[in-house]
Amino acid sequence: MAAVDECVVVIDGANVACQKDGKAHIPKLAAAIRFFRSLEPAAGQYPVKCVAFAPNFWLNVKPTPGSAGPRENGAMETDDWALLNELVQKDHVILTPSQAHDDFYVIDYAVKYNGFIVTNDMFRDHVSNKRTFHGKRLTSSWVRSHCIDFTFVGKEFMPNPRAMERVFNFQPSATESLPSAGTPSSSSSLHRTQSSNENVEADNVNEDGMVVDHKGTKRGKNIDLSEVTYYKVPRELLPMLHGEGGETMDKFQEYTGTYIVLPSHSASASPSVSNVLTLSIYG
């Protein structure tokens, strides 16, 4: 994974622009880009870098006979074509090869920089096909914790405010990473049950948050990723919170039925933009 000094937000251009009729509406994509590029980091927050990916064929239009300008094609209207071309020229939108699946580029870039994806797609096909990115296998739990769902009110872009809390409170070491592709994949401690420390396969989790027991029973309810509270703590308290090689925090999580995300122990000695760190408590 690449070194991270900013919060990377990757926009799934095809998902954002194509909402109802299947045609690309570039003003909606532009609204999403404008929203994230206009975010100003507060004290102690990481700056947001926004990049959108869109299929190259959207710009593959031919001039109308007798005209030097683009014409309408199956993808979009002429005005939308001009707006998309402008976004591409500014490097706000990156075009993906026509023969390739743009999802691969979207997910790959987000995994590389431990970023977030703006999409209403849960990438279930890629999860079920066990796609790997940077040597890591994509899991449903990673998708749930790294995707920002959204809607539009007219042309106004509205992301899920709960998902946006992860962006505003982003810490490089405080988001779940993918399991290595070469090893059996068990869920992270985000999916510990309240009654057991036993790990379970991320793909064995139902939509209702219950672990599937193939023997016909269900174990305890998993920790809900959507239930999260953020606390600011002084940097000097980090060694104490990690205490006893992490056992102190593990025991507390087991007792309370929560999962707590802490920056790594080395963060206590590293230079930072702030003397305050974010503690994320799930459950």
Q: What does this 3D model show about the protein?
A:
- With 283 residues, the protein is of the alpha/beta class.
- Among the domains are: 7-62 and 76-169, Rossmann fold (3-Layer(aba) Sandwich); 228-265 and 274-282, K Homology domain, type 1 (Ribosomal Protein S8, Chain: A, domain 1, 2-Layer Sandwich), CATH 3.30.1370.10.
- It contains nine helices and 14 strands.
- The strands form five sheets. A five-stranded parallel sheet has the order 3-2-1-4-7, with helices on both faces. It has a three-stranded antiparallel sheet with strand order 12-14-13, covered by helices on one side. The chain has a two-stranded antiparallel sheet with strand order 5-6.
- A hairpin with a 2-residue loop joins strand 5 (132-133) and strand 6 (136-137).
- It starts with 6 loop residues before the first strand and ends with a strand.
- Residues 174-201 are annotated as: Disordered.
- This is RNase NYN domain-containing protein.
- It holds the Pfam family RNase_Zc3h12a.
